[in-house]
Amino acid sequence: MSYTITMIPGDGIGPEVMEAMQAVVNASGVEIEWEVVNAGEGVIEEYGTPLPDYVIESIKKNKIAIKGPVTTPVGKGFRSVNVGLRQSLNLYANVRPVKTFKGVPCRYEDVDLIIVRENTEDLYAGIEHMVGEDAAETIKIITRKASVRISKYAYELAKAQNRKMVTAVHKANIMKLSDGLFLKCAKEVGEEYPEIISNDMIVDAMSMRMVQDPTKYDVLVMPNLYGDILSDMASGLVGGLGIVPGANIGEDMAVFEAVHGSAPDIAGLNIANPTATILSGVMMLRYLKEFEAADKIEKAVSKVLESGKVVTSDLGGNAKTMEYANEIINNM
Q: Does 204 map to a domain?
């Protein structure tokens, strides 16, 4: 079977890591036609936005996309392309698997958890305004519909992967209405899955306990802001953002992307680590039910990382981006 997939190269190191991902996925034997569309800083001058309509139209047509990192201005300028994609396409579930790989320096062994983050509301709904000249207000939106939907996604994911536990993360002790509603919905959904252990954790306590021992956790489900913070923190526990993939899943379409940023300071040097983008490609293949190809790539990545002989500088080696990708291909 062949697929047409929207590919967004992105900014900074994006085109380099996406080229590596494309080469590895192509070598897996899955037949893909890549429809390349551009978004980010490079198109603002021409289109007046980092997210032109043709990007959204391409994804709606193909139903699946993979993107490189794009630059988001801090405190000014345009809204995040990632937020725009998630809201325009109703990609309600952000999924980030976090696991250790032998050969990647980190403090822990045998970490294998998944953070499921509600993607469409909370403080990231972008509803904010000034109150006079000296105060700003942002509105936190939590709805029953979104909370039930993301909770069901987390439990169905746990069920599909034979995972044992789902932990709802919240701050309902303080935000009794908004986070209280999220927690209530998560508990109600959990009752529908008696075979899975259900519990909950206040977000600050979750942060502490995850640092103490992340191997105790399996699937974590939470509102948008907490998911953004905890998924990056969890990445740091297993070696950094350079090895953690991600996916944004909707009802009938999905966009896959690495967690890390565009790193403009090293763009064009061919030294960027493409592991996270390649593993996002693995997630994409599994979404397409191309399990054999996905497993083949992931096993090759694990082998190359464990060997440590042909890896990028952030992993202790001196390989160029495509040298590393070619080493993965050679091990497939």
A: yes
